[in-house]
Automatic annotation (TrEMBL):
Pfam families: Glyco_hydro_26
Protein name, UniProt field: GH26 domain-containing protein
This protein's UniProt keywords: Glycosidase, Hydrolase, Signal
Signal peptide: 1-18
Domain of life, per lineage: Bacteria
A GO MF term: hydrolase activity, hydrolyzing O-glycosyl compounds
Region entry Disordered, spans: 34-54
Biased composition (Polar residues): 40-54
InterPro entries in alphabetical order: GH (IPR017853), GH26_dom (IPR022790)
Active-site residues, as the UniProt record annotates them: E163 (proton donor), E284 (nucleophile)
Amino acid sequence: MRIMHSSRLLRMRRHAMAVTASLALVAVAVSGCSSRETPRSSGTSRAPLNMTAGSDSSVAASSRVLFGGDAQLSGLRDLGRSPAIVRTYDTIDNAGNFPTKDENSALRSGATLLTSLGTGRHRDWASIAAGKSDTAVLKFLRAVNKAAADHHLKAIYVSFNHEPNAKINANKGRPENFVAAWRHVHKLAADAHLDAEVGGHLRWVWILTASGFRKSSIANSFWPGAKYVDVVGADGYVSGGCTKQKSGNYVNPAKNAPQPGAIFGPALTWSTTHATSKPVFIPEWGSVRFTDRSVRPSYIHAMTDYVVAHPQIDAILYWNDHAHYSSCDYALDKDPSSQRALTAMGRNSHFQAHR
């Protein structure tokens, strides 16, 4: 296992609480960093997020996709490229540590970030909405904005308490408390001119588990509103039964992986209906190994085709790691065939967006 600094430990703990989806063979990860303390596009115009430094914000978004993953993805020897976007995890408790070693490394490579700001320990959404953590939150948001400016990035993407629908976040309050907290954090950024819409560099990615979009009522209850969100995100994994085992390296005995549309289709449908013009990110995705070693690389190829066929998707980030308290192993380090499949995705002309 790689270096286990605090942000890594946070990432690892979240998969211990992964939720098995009701569809056969499908499980979506419950990946809230704050809780770790430890159809084709309908043709509507979209927010112009994949822009070069000289782009006009009135120009429609590029059809190309940001390709990336977590910090561990860069360690894949045969990936053949640097990620254009790197997934990182912070909390209010460690807000003063931004940028971390992983974040600095990604920024120096020319990548942008999708970073989560979790609540940290002993904070609920109501207290954040009430302003009790404003000093730490603003310190973090200013540091993120400064990093974007220092590294000549048009934007860094921020998500407050991603996957609030996950069971592990249930003790933080009701959906309306989350909405109030999200809006409050967003207002802090806007008032300080850190938001991209008012001259800053922060773009906001609202993320649920992919299963949270299967019932519109669930997604609707956590939706902060279009004026507070730039991107809709859905995290989804092919996990099989790995969440039922506390350790080891689970191998899925199924003969086939689910189709990507079975996992991510509901999020695209919900977004088209309820978040018109908003692009979609897949901030975390991955697959465990199968007994038939050809299945996982085939699934990665299927994901490539799926993203190409759905221009609503603007970014896709592979989570290349092993869960800490379960047998869910999504890492590709010892799977050359799956590495080659992901390398092919990264080299595909559709996945060449850069910040």
